[in-house]
Every structure is written in C-alpha cells, then in structure tokens.
Amino acid sequence: MANESRPCPCDIGDRFDYGGRGQEIQVEHIKAYVCKPSTSTDKAVIVIHDIFGWQLPNTRYIADMLSTNGYIAICPDFFAGQEAWKPSNDWGTFNEWLKTRNAGKIDKEVDAVLKYLRDQCGAKKIGVIGFCWGGAAVQHLMLKNPHLKTGVSVYGVIRRFDDNSNLLHPTFFIFGEKDDIVPLEQVTLLEQKLKQNCKVDYEVKIYPGQTHGFVHRKREDINPQDKPYIEEGRKDMINWLNKYL
C-alpha cells in the first residue's frame, strides 16, 4: 500500500455541493436513494457506494445522471445502517472498520433491491455500477448473481478473481493510471485472467493520469486537465449500460 497510515485516498475535499433530485425510501431492512426518469422504463441501475456511504452527494449525482439518461437509479445503504467512513476518522483504524463491511457479503441487500425494482418499479433489465468498495462489490455480483444483466466496476479493488474469473455478465472495468490503491500490475493480471477464462463480453480501460476516485469526484474544479477524462469515464459508463440493458 502506498501509504499505510492512509490506506484509501478517497478524499472528498472536492465533495459536491449537491442536494439530489431523487428521494430516500425504505426497502425492507435498508434505506435507499432512488431517482426515476421523466418517462416510464423497465431498465434500472443499482448504484453501489464507496466507503463514504449511500448519502455522499457525489454518488447521488451519478444516480441522478443515470436517471436523466433514462434509467431508474437506486443507491441503497449497503452498510445496512452501519456508519460510513468519515474523512475525520483515524485512518489507522480503517482496516478494522472494513472487516465489518465486506463487499462480498451484500447478497441479502441486493435481493431486497432487486425485488423492489421488479415489483414496485416494473424493472425487467437491471444492471449495477459501483465505485471503489462498490466496484469490488460489482465484481462479486458479476461472478455470482444470475439476475443482473451487466455491470460497471469503477476503480474497484481487485479481490474477487483469485479463484474465479469467469464472469456471468458483460462487465466494464474502469481504472486510473495513477491509482495507488489499484496498481497497474494488478490490472494487467486481471486482464490476463479474463482473457484466459471469461466467456462473456468485457472491457478493461485505463484512463491516463487519473487517480483513485476520478469518475465520481468533481476534480475538474481543481484540475482542469482531468475534466476530459472524468467526462469520458462517465460517457463510457453510460454507453456500456446502453449497450447491455
């Protein structure tokens, strides 16, 4: 790890000042933020948050962006009521905090959300996107869950492919070239495993000069040179969903 005292550089110093267009609802045992498009649709996207949780304005902005592109977007609390990480927390306690929030153990919550989308929203084609912690969760779901159509894993820590790299659904992987959390050698190894074993469509894309968190952080306000890559990452994400949903 590049900095053991700070193992995840998901800074929100450039956090959106953003309220959101959707509403908060209760879905069985968890809360969720949902935003629906202006016209009816049977397509939906589950948005899986990063360590800063389901209420982070940056993530809600992405959900709203998906809704303006014609999708029912829902961002559930996959920590199921446990506190999200705060930038003011002691990073020395991060690994202990993370042990109680396993990105590979969200199946109960996903089942509840799928039922809500099908029964309450009329969704028939459902995909998933996730950021950082949520990107790892997407990897888990693309390997295990038969009910989703496609996924986008955005700088997800690569932990799900040690024993199995045979994806069930088309999956798009977004990584930053300068990401200290997901070094390029891990990305190269992932590509090798997918090439050997994967039978569905996939793409692994590395964005030049970008650091961890670039797609759903408003970095264009601080580093104008990053703006084209932020926009490209978001456009690529939408295009992938449009192709498979």
UniProtKB/TrEMBL annotation:
Q: Name one GO molecular function term.
A: hydrolase activity
Task: Give all residue intervals belonging to the Dienelactone hydrolase domain.
Answer: 30-245
* Localization per Swiss-Prot or TrEMBL: Cytoplasm, Cytosol
Which Gene3D superfamilies does the record associate with it?
alpha/beta hydrolase
One GO CC annotation, please? cytosol
**Pfam families linked to this entry:** DLH
Keyword Cytoplasm carried by entry: yes
Grouped into one coarse class, the protein's main location is cytoplasm
Tagged with keyword NADP: no
> What keywords appear on the UniProt entry?
Cytoplasm
Q: Which PANTHER family match?
A: CARBOXYMETHYLENEBUTENOLIDASE HOMOLOG (PTHR46812:SF3)
The family assignment reads: Belongs to the dienelactone hydrolase family.
Protein name as it appears in the record:
Carboxymethylenebutenolidase homolog
Q: Which organism is it from?
A: Mionectes macconnelli
